[in-house]
């Protein structure tokens, strides 16, 4: 099994072995493109550029698939979360057409890669159903359907659904798709290496120096590149894109059904937040994958409750035999409804970013790869302007881009926190966590299952918001821009790229005695 940025285990993660790179990186070489991030966006971009004759190096801080690619529910849609009527309103009718064309091309790219590289990842074209359950939803559904039909998507009105939900109106969209995202990116990774590309895992980028060439400082030494692509879900550092993307958590279950009534389609209701369903076969076993209960990262007190709500909802509509997997993952909603793909705001022309994919990360990853490839190859297309991250208007008084100071100030360095005092203050049961006030300081405490107390400074290393505890994932999550840290403060998710400050707890003899007698 591979690691993910979470303590829950996804269906994909639980059914795959760690990827073993076969090529060695050359510290003396100058790579044409250094790609940071080993998810679907990074690997697709790397493969396209390597095949176009560029020498590419992909750096991944953990293992490939560690981020949202390992936690997505992997729907491949041309009917998007931002509907075509919204895109027409926010941008233009022509732009809506361009988006439709781009996401169609992205699904075709996935299908072609699967065929070319014989990737066994359960890819299937399938129908999708979107249904309304009241008058207001029906009105909204008709607008969505009309705009999608104008973009050439095949849509038909339905009088039944492949699931037992009450509905007032339902449409079927053809030519949507699904697959196993980790099996797919493993195939991409092998194809990339076969084409001469290099993947380095467990290699965290610490800092970049952009002079004539880009010097990339990492935990495994320095690499040099002509271009750098941040495919890290949201880029590290402090950038305008962080102010234009809102982080959300989404929850998923993979369940086995007692009556084999697995729907052979993608299914969506229109509740707020909406629920989504589909079926996937892995190793001969069928699973119903259900998702929903989305909320802004760091804005929910009890994330375990989200799983309970989702499970209750699924049990209401399906005969559940067993809940085999439950997991959550993150996505970023862009302010104007379209992703930010291209030159990173405030950076030189050879620094690229792809972020803000909303709930359509699997298709926008392919769009991002094609847009960035074309820019780097000097092929200028209309999509370059449409998705340009610099379409964001600068915010008054905001410095466009601030690079990190590699030496994070250790605010509490040398200070000892007495365990017995903190224990008294927090009153934690094993597995619980809390931020407490101690001696004029805020202290984030977690008691592990063995009863050991762990203390970190709750100030996020990105832009200094205070992190909160995510009970479901046992992580410290930042409500501002979605950085996440494990219980010991280790950074799991950008935009932070430094761990939370670890606080030293003292256990003197009286502390120990007190704990023994408690
Ligand atoms: Fe920006 Fe924490 S993620 S302040």
Give a description of the structure:
The chain has 11 helices and 28 strands. It has 518 residues and is an alpha+beta fold. Among the domains are: 31-71 and 182-243 and 337-350 and 365-391, 3-Layer(bba) Sandwich (FAD/NAD(P)-binding domain); 408-516, Rieske Iron-sulfur Protein. Strand 1, helix 1 (40-51) and strand 2 (56-59) form a beta-alpha-beta unit. The longest helix is centred in the first third of the chain and has 24 residues, at 93-116. The radius of gyration is 23 Å and the shape is globular. The model is unreliable at 397-408 (pLDDT under 50). The structure holds FE2/S2 (inorganic) cluster (FES). The site of FE2/S2 (inorganic) cluster has 12 residues, from loops.
Give me some keywords for this one.
8-stranded mixed beta sheet, binds FE2/S2 (inorganic) cluster, Rieske Iron-sulfur Protein, 9-stranded mixed beta sheet, 518 residues, alpha+beta, globular, 11 helices, 25% helix, FAD/NAD(P)-binding domain
How would you summarize the topology of this molecule?
Blueprint: E1 30-36, H1 40-51, E2 56-59, E3 75-76, H2 84-90, H3 93-116, E4 124-132, H4 135-150, E5 155-158, E6 169-178, H5 181-194, E7 198-200, E8 205-210, E9 214-218, E10 221-230, E11 238-239, H6 240-243, E12 245-257, E13 266-268, E14 276-282, E15 285-296, H7 303-317, E16 320-334, E17 340-343, E18 351-355, H8 361-376, H9 382-386, E19 401-402, E20 416-418, H10 419-426, E21 433-438, E22 441-447, E23 453-456, E24 468-470, E25 475-477, E26 484-486, E27 491-493, E28 504-506, H11 509-517
Parallel strand pairs: 1-2, 1-10, 2-7, 4-13, 10-18, 20-28
Antiparallel strand pairs: 3-6, 4-6, 5-6, 8-9, 9-10, 11-19, 12-15, 12-16, 13-14, 14-15, 17-18, 21-22, 22-23, 24-25, 25-26, 26-27
């Amino acid at each position: 099994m591979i690691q993910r940025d979470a303590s829950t285990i996804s269906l994909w993660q639980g059914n795959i072995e760690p990827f073993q790179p076969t090529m060695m990186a050359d510290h003396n070489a100058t790579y044409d493109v250094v790609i940071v991030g080993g998810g679907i966006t990074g690997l697709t971009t790397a493969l396209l550029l390597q095949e176009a004759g560029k020498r590419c190096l992909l750096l991944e801080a953990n293992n490939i698939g560690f981020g949202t690619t390992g936690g997505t529910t992997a729907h491949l849609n041309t009917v998007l979360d931002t509907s075509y009527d919204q895109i027409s309103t926010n941008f233009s009718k022509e732009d809506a057409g361009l988006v439709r064309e781009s996401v169609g091309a992205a699904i075709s790219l996935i299908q072609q890669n699967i065929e070319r590289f014989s990737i066994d990842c359960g890819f299937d074209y399938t129908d999708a159903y979107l249904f309304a359950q009241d008058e207001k939803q029906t009105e909204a559904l008709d607008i969505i359907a009309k705009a999608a039909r104008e973009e050439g998507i095949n849509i038909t009105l339905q009088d039944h659904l492949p699931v037992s939900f009450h509905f007032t109106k339902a449409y079927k969209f053809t030519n949507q798709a699904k697959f196993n995202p980790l099996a797919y990116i493993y195939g991409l990774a092998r194809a990339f290496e076969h084409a001469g590309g290099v993947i380095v895992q467990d290699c965290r980028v610490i800092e970049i120096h952009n002079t004539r060439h880009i010097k990339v400082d990492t935990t495994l030494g320095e690499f040099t590149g002509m271009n750098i692509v941040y495919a890290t879900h949201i880029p590290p550092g402090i950038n305008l894109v962080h102010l234009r993307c809102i982080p959300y958590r989404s929850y998923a279950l993979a369940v086995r059904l007692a009556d084999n009534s697995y729907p052979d389609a993608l299914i969506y209701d229109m509740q707020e937040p909406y629920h989504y369903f589909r079926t996937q076969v892995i190793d001969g076993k069928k699973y119903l994958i259900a998702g929903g209960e989305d909320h802004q990262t760091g804005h929910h007190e009890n994330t375990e409750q989200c799983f309970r709500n989702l499970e209750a909802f699924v049990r209401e509509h399906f005969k559940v035999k067993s809940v085999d997997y439950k997991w959550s993952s993150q996505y970023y909603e862009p302010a104007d409804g379209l992703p930010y793909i291209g030159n990173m705001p405030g950076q030189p022309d050879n620094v690229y970013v792809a972020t803000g994919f909303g709930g359509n990360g699997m298709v926008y990853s392919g769009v991002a790869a094609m847009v960035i490839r074309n820019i780097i190859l000097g092929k200028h297309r209309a999509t370059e302007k449409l998705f340009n991250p610099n379409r964001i208007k600068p915010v008054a008084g905001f410095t466009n881009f601030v690079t990190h100071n590699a030496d994070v100030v250790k605010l509490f360095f040398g200070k000892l926190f007495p365990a017995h005092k903190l224990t008294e203050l927090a009153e934690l049961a094993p597995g619980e966590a809390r931020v407490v006030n101690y001696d004029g300081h805020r202290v984030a405490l977690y008691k592990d299952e063995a009863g050991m107390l762990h203390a970190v400074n709750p100030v996020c290393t990105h832009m200094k918001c205070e992190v909160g505890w995510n009970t479901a994932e046992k992580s410290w999550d930042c409500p501002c821009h979605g950085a996440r840290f494990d219980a010991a403060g280790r950074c799991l998710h950008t935009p932070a790229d430094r761990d939370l400050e670890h606080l030293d707890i003292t256990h003197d003899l009286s502390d120990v005695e007190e704990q023994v007698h408690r």
